[in-house]
UniProtKB/TrEMBL annotation, chain A:
Major localization listed first in the record, in broad terms: cytoplasm
GO biological process annotation, one example: U1 snRNA 3'-end processing
UniProt biased composition (Basic residues): 426-435
Native organism taxonomy: Eukaryota, Metazoa, Ecdysozoa, Arthropoda, Hexapoda
The protein's name: Exosome complex component RRP45
PANTHER family: EXOSOME COMPLEX COMPONENT RRP45, EXOSOME COMPLEX EXONUCLEASE RIBOSOMAL RNA PROCESSING PROTEIN
MF terms in GO: mRNA 3'-UTR AU-rich region binding
Family according to the record: Belongs to the RNase PH family.
Organism, as annotated: Bemisia tabaci (Sweetpotato whitefly)
Keyword Nucleus among UniProt keywords: yes
Domain called Exoribonuclease phosphorolytic: residue spans: 32-163, 189-256
Location of region: Disordered: 398-435
UniProtKB/TrEMBL annotation, chain B:
Organism: Bemisia tabaci (Sweetpotato whitefly)
Membrane-spanning segments: none
PANTHER family xrefs: EXOSOME COMPLEX COMPONENT, EXOSOME COMPLEX COMPONENT RRP41
Family in the record: Belongs to the RNase PH family.
Subunit structure as annotated in this protein's UniProt entry: Component of the RNA exosome complex.
Name of the protein: Putative exosome complex component RRP41
Gene Ontology cellular component terms for the protein in this record: cytoplasmic exosome (RNase complex); nuclear exosome (RNase complex); nucleolus
Entry-linked Pfam families: RNase_PH (PF01138), RNase_PH_C (PF03725)
GO MF annotations in UniProt: RNA binding
Keyword 4Fe-4S: no
Domain Exoribonuclease phosphorolytic: 18-149, 153-217
């Protein structure tokens, strides 16, 4: 397995941000990314999205001979697939440590905590039992994969139904769903894996870490808890920790989070059940792929986000600093430095004569067509250009992240700003001309 | 059958906070640089350490600032009640290997051997609960026997919870199968740091603290036993240790 490579500056940046109580995506330390569960048409299939981590779960079953040590118990098999699809640093085909780790945590979480009544899956003791198999495919690896997998597995198991069986004495008959309703699994309790990343010897505890945060943190802790505050699994990774107290604190925090997650899973299951009961068309998994939006496949280029409050403060800071200079500047550009250029029949453009600063793009040379065919046409038409600007709209660009290529552009509406304009740093002022 | 009787005795006659008998021996083989044999109750483990030596296999694995630690956990096919199909390569032993590596990495002074490799091989001869603990303890002894500088001992111990209230230390296989939860802790007993923590089955969060504390107490008790064995071994092998002779 190739390692995810993180540069030293990036590491330091994240560490420093965390020590100041900030996260790159603007979340608080105990915030969860957006969780979404979509169920498929078949029983026991779902797609779970946690931020940009994505997992597909599918539960299936077949009849098998039980283990000799437990002749009257069904089997539960969990398989996690972490292929090259999930992230570049995984090679498909080979068993890697991350896959084994996730698999074992989930096995402990679901099988060893006995959350599913396996005895109910017995058909004929010592001969035939149901073998329930949970397949988890990780589509996108973006941190807290264990948590996302456990939610997916839980939702899929709770959604799953196996066919009804009758024993005739000599053999068994497996009924199709048309003959008899399929039977849901008996679930004693709902466990979820909650993962934490610890920084600075446990001084800062982050819930639901992204891949980057996971990689940079000192310790990664996964706690499996059910909604009754029972611990079902624990996994500690990274450097060693100083006190037990830390684990205790994390697990009590995990218990609260787990309760919320389990409630969410139950709600989505109930919703799906309602849709099915009301004989409506079940949307299935198609609905989460085929979005009729132009931005269906768009990705955010920048993961760094500031919260609204921070943004407001920043604006205030900038505006107060440069308020005196602003009046002068505004006067300058409002009059003689602008000229109107006709660009075609019944259209004109307001072009600034001021030098446009580098990095914001020069004025559009393609559209300015002085003395071209159009200008002669426009003379003939009834449209007359008037040197009057009736409405002007200021578009202000706030540069918050220096002059890097990925700069955050915030567009503010004039009413938000209370007529206060911004610094000399922001030279791009566009006015829409109206005839 | 209860995990603990009204008289406070466990299935095998121990008290709640009592360990199984530990017997160990350092330097059992000549071929490896360090080796150890450890018995914890009926659980029997052999450990062998090779290294530090040049990187085996591809040189690209070499680390410029620390040592590559290679662990292998394997269970003899005859070690369990039902004969095992293969000694290693399944998920459980891969997980054990990962956890062992984590425990051992926590104590080895890795920065002393850049571009080198240390191999730790463990073989479970008889599995009767607490295999991982026995392996970690045996690995510590083997590393000491190999003369590899360690920060301190790394010692592992299990703990469980009987009848939902009484914490038990050092769980046997029978107690595991009877349905007791199982918390494994690998700790550095002198500094009290926790290197590995792992659990299966379930118990209420409120008990986590006391069960972990008992496991840590178990680690400290095992440390005393191991330390005594190491000192005895050094006296036997004839190395001159004035401060030991004076004791």
């Amino acid at each position: 397995m190739k390692e995810l490579i993180v540069s030293t500056c990036e590491k330091n940046f994240i560490r420093q941000a965390v020590s100041q109580g900030k996260r790159l995506d603007g979340r608080k330390f105990d915030d969860l990314r957006k969780l979404d569960i979509k169920y498929g048409l078949e029983w026991g299939s779902c797609v779970t999205t946690l931020g940009s981590t994505k997992v597909v779960a599918q539960v299936s079953c077949d009849v098998q001979v039980p283990k000799t040590s437990r002749p009257n118990e069904g089997l539960l098999f969990i398989n996690v697939e972490l292929s090259g699809m999930a992230s570049v640093h995984f090679e498909s085909g080979k068993i890697n440590d991350a896959e084994v780790k996730i698999n074992r945590i989930l096995e402990k979480c679901f099988r060893e905590s006995k959350c599913i009544d396996l005895e109910a899956l017995c058909i004929v003791a010592e001969e035939k039992v149901w073998n329930v198999r949970v397949d988890l495919n990780i589509l996108n690896y973006e941190g807290n994969v264990v948590g996302c997998c456990s939610i997916a597995a839980l939702a899929a198991l709770a959604h799953f139904r196996h066919p009804d069986v009758t024993s005739t004495g000599e053999g068994i008959i497996i009924h199709s769903e048309a003959e008899r309703d399929a039977i849901p699994l008996t679930i004693h309790h709902y466990p979820v894996a909650v993962s934490f990343a610890l920084f600075d010897q446990g001084k800062h505890i982050i819930h639901d870490p992204t891949a980057l945060e996971e990689h940079v943190s000192d310790v990664q802790l996964v706690v499996c808890v059910n909604s009754y505050r029972e611990l079902c699994g624990l996994y500690l990774e990274g450097s060693s920790i100083k006190t037990v107290d830390l684990v205790v604190r994390c697990s009590s925090q995990a218990a609260k989070i787990a309760k919320r997650l389990v409630d969410y899973v139950r709600d989505t299951l109930q919703e799906d059940q309602n849709v099915r009961n009301s004989n409506m068309q079940v949307p299935g998994l198609v609905s989460c792929v085929n979005e009729d939006s132009l931005f269906a496949l768009s990705q955010e280029r920048l993961i760094i986000k500031l919260t609204d409050r921070e943004l407001q403060e920043k604006i205030k800071e900038l505006t107060t600093e440069t308020e005196e200079k602003l009046d002068v500047e505004m006067k300058d550009c409002s009059n003689e430095d602008m000229k109107i250029v006709s660009t075609g029949p019944s259209s004109a453009e307001l072009v600034s004569n001021l030098d446009v600063k580098v990095g914001l793009g020069d004025k559009n040379a393609w559209m300015v067509d002085e003395g071209g065919d159009y200008s002669s046409e426009s003379e003939n038409s009834e449209v007359e250009l008037v040197q009057e600007v009736s409405r002007h709209e200021k578009v202000i660009q706030l540069e918050l992240s220096g002059d890097s290529e990925e700069e955050e552009v915030t567009v503010l509406k004039p009413e938000n700003l209370e007529q206060r304009d911004l610094s000399q740093k922001l030279p791009k002022k566009k006015k829409s001309g109206k005839k | 059958m209860d995990l603990i009787s009204d008289q406070g005795l466990r299935v095998d006659g121990r008290r709640a906070g009592e360990l199984r008998r530990i017997r160990c021996k350092l330097g059992v083989y000549d071929q490896p640089d360090g080796s150890a044999y450890l018995e914890q109750g009926h659980t029997k483990v052999l450990a062998a350490v090779y290294g530090p030596h040049q990187i085996r296999g591809s040189r690209t694995k070499a680390l410029q600032d620390s040592v590559v630690i290679n662990c292998q956990y394997s269970m003899a096919t005859f070690s369990t009640g039902e004969r095992k199909k293969r000694p290693r390569g399944d998920r459980r032993s891969t997980e054990m290997t990962m956890l062992l590596k984590q425990a051992v990495s926590a104590v080895i002074k890795a920065e002393l051997y850049p571009r080198s490799q240390i191999d730790v091989f463990l073989e479970v001869l008889q599995a009767d609960g607490g295999n991982y603990c026995a392996c970690v303890n045996a690995a510590t002894l083997a590393l000491i026997d190999a003369g590899i500088p360690l920060r301190e001992y790394v010692v592992a111990c299990t703990a469980s919870l009987a009848n939902g209230k009484v914490p038990l230390v050092d769980i046997s296989h029978l107690e595991e199968t009877m349905g007791g939860p199982n918390l494994t802790v690998a700790a550095l007993p002198l500094s009290g740091q926790i290197a590995v923590m792992e659990m299966s089955q379930r118990f209420h969060i409120d008990h986590l603290e006391e069960v972990t504390q008992l496991a840590l107490q178990g680690c400290r008790d095992i440390y005393k036993i191991l330390d005594k064995a190491v000192k005895e071994h050094l006296l036997e092998t004839g190395d001159f240790f004035p401060q030991l002779e004076s004791n």
